[in-house]
TrEMBL record:
Residues 6-126 form the Glycosyltransferase 2-like domain. SUPFAM superfamilies: Nucleotide-diphospho-sugar transferases. The keyword Transferase applies. This is Glycosyltransferase family 2 protein. It comes from Chryseobacterium pennae.
Length: 251
């Protein structure tokens, strides 16, 4: 039997999209997974919609207090029992072969972390930009300048590296977590195949690049412990790369 995959999902007011996300997991060709969903005290029908699915692999926990996506992901991570950690936000989507291809590739190439291409879509999952390509080996050094790792398209092996939690006081929590992980492993390996869809919602924080320059600066200054000058240098690189990555959708 294949090693267990733990899927980590935070959700908050996701009723509009959660059923598509659920179906993408239920359709996986690798069926040996557990899904740790942590609801951050949704005010809509998200929880009721998840509970309609009578599958023991879906393990829902509803928090008593809203604490943000990083806190919700950490709650799921703390409950995870699988060897492999995969991330899927409650409005994103995987192709059916995602889990099988990612885990098989990790085993075949003795990899500790892998990432794949993903489609950048609108709220109806229609592509609005070219696919983001997994075409470079990722290291701590090059991840400082631009975050090539997206939760929807990245997986790591806890047997090799342990678990990595998210900082709860950063709006750039995923970048900080990946950097901490890449401090202890030499590289992340690309799989140049599109197997995920990232939904770029109109109100997404990650789309408002101009509004999170300060948050990105704090990634380097507070979480990496860099000097002010070094932090400004990497923030400028990140901003330039971010503009090139999303320039067609900036207002």
């Amino acid at each position: 039997m294949k090693d267990l995959v733990s899927i980590i999902t935070p959700c908050y007011n996701s009723a509009e999209f959660i059923e598509e996300t659920i179906q993408s997991v239920l359709n996986q060709t690798n069926e040996n997974w557990e899904w740790l969903i942590t609801d951050d005290l949704s005010k809509d029908s998200t929880v009721e919609m998840i509970r309609k699915y009578n599958d023991p692999r879906i393990k829902l926990k509803v928090l008593e207090k809203n604490g943000g996506a990083g806190n919700a992901r950490n709650n799921s991570l703390e409950r995870a029992q699988g060897r492999y950690i995969a991330f899927l936000d409650s409005d994103d989507f995987w192709h059916p072969e995602y889990l099988e291809t990612m885990t098989d590739y990790m085993q075949e190439h003795n990899a500790e972390l892998v990432y794949c291409n993903y489609s950048r879509c609108d709220e109806q999952l229609r592509p609005i930009l070219k696919d983001f390509l997994a075409d470079k080996v990722v290291t701590f050094s090059n991840l400082l300048k631009t975050c090539r790792l997206a939760p929807v398209s990245t997986m790591y092996d806890t047997k090799r590296v342990g678990k990595f939690l998210f900082p709860v006081k950063s709006k750039r929590e995923d970048h900080v977590m990946w950097l901490n992980l890449l401090k202890v492993i030499p590289e992340g390996i690309p799989i140049n195949k599109t197997m995920a869809k990232y939904r770029m919602r109109e109100n997404s924080v990650s789309r408002k690049k101009k509004n999170i320059i300060k948050d990105q600066y704090l990634v380097y200054k507070d979480f990496m412990g860099f000097s002010t000058l070094k932090s400004l240098y990497y923030t400028a690189n990140w901003a330039l790369n971010g503009f090139m990555k999303y320039s067609k959708i900036f207002n």
